[in-house]
Amino acid sequence: SHASIAAHTMSAAPQAMPNARPLDDVSNIIDLDALHKELEQARSNVEMWMARRELSMKEQVAVHKTNMAVAEEEYVSLVEREKDLATAAEELARRQEYQQAELDALQEEAAQAKELGEDLPQQLQVLREQVTTEKDEVEREQTKVKGDEMVKAQMLQAHLSAVDLYRDRLGLRFEIGDAEELRFFYRHVDPADHEREFMVAVRVVDTGGYELMDCDPDMGDAAQRLLAECNRTDNLSGFVRGVRKLFRASVAEEEVAAAAAALREKAKVSAPSYAPADEPEPEPEPELVAPRTPFNTKPDDMVPL
Asked: In a 3-state reduction of DSSP, which class is residue 63?
């Protein structure tokens, strides 16, 4: 406080100059009003600097959150890709094993047929070959049907797993609206409110592709550009991920705007007042020039923050 600084100055003066004459009025050496104004100005400068630093840190945090969301989506995509590749590799290995077993059986059957055919009449040999051919065709058809059913079951399971993953990890769910539009609802987008839902709706058009029906909050032309790219590449999954990125960026902008508004309000509240108090004018006294110290440095000599 100013009183403690003045007391410290008065107590330190005799130690610095033991032979000096005691001073009756310390205000002749230090202009306390000027010192008070300088301290207030310095405090205001420090608070403004801290507010700018806080805003900069929040902006960096928002950018970091956006980057983390992108990295999370890429990680989920890589995990799904890895699962798909592992499933395809397992299916290929099973098919190769089955084909090898079928080839071995056919070779063995051909050897047996050759041995029997040498002792059988020509008609019996032709009949056996016909039966073998028909049997092979039936087995191939059965194998094809089983393989198609297995692939469909695996694809269905993969889609169900992906839907569960998007719903549980990313808060994504789907609905069919009254106008046959497909609605995508997103959660876990706003770090301050994970249950807050964002929505985008599209509908299949007769000429092919999709058209945008609704978007809450409105993303303007950005959503339309994403949908145009989706229609060009036929990649609805990419459109869904792109809209989520738009929502995340919108939330980040809201956080920055809120931080800036809070900073402006704080600056208004913390603005110092220098209204002079009504005091009697002091009698003119001889002007004493005080030594240059950190306490009587003028604002023009201060280093800007």
From this structure: helix
* Cα torsion angle, 57, 62, 67, 73, sign: positive
Residue-wise DSSP of 67-109: HHHHHHHHHHHHHHHHHHHHHHHHHHHHHHHHHHHHHHHHHHH
Sheet holding 172-176, edge to edge: 172-176, 182-186, 198-204, 210-216
Question: For residue 108, which phi and psi values (nearest 5 degrees)?
Answer: -65, -40
Report the number of secondary-structure helices (H) and strands (E) in the chain: 5, 4
Distance CA 198, CA 249 (A): 13
pLDDT tens digit sequence for 242-295: 999 999 999 999 999 988 998 998 888 875 555 555 555 555 544 444 444 333
Which tokens is 70 given?
């992108």
The answer to whether 56 and 30 have CB atoms below 8 angstroms apart is no
| DSSP code for 19 | T
Question: What is 137-162 written as a DSSP string?
Answer: HHHHHHHHHHHHHHHHHHHHHHHHHH
As given in the structure block, the two tokens for residue 219 are 């993303």
Q: What is the mean pLDDT of residues 161-183?
A: 80
Residue 90 pLDDT exceeds 50: yes
Nearest to 76 by CA among 10, 161, 14: 161
Which structure tokens are listed for 68?
A: 């983390």
Q: pLDDT category, 25, cuts 50, 70, 90? A: low
Tens digits of residue pLDDT in 1-20: 444 444 444 444 444 445 55
* pLDDT for residue 304: 33
Phi, psi values for residue 14, rounded to 5°: -65, -35
Mean pLDDT of the chain: 79
3-class DSSP string for 265-298:
HHHHHCCCCCCCCCCCCCCCCCCCCCCCCCCCCC
The pLDDT of residue 66 is above 70: yes
Give the tokens for residue 268.
Answer: 């208004």
Closest CA to 2 of 29, 51, 37: 37
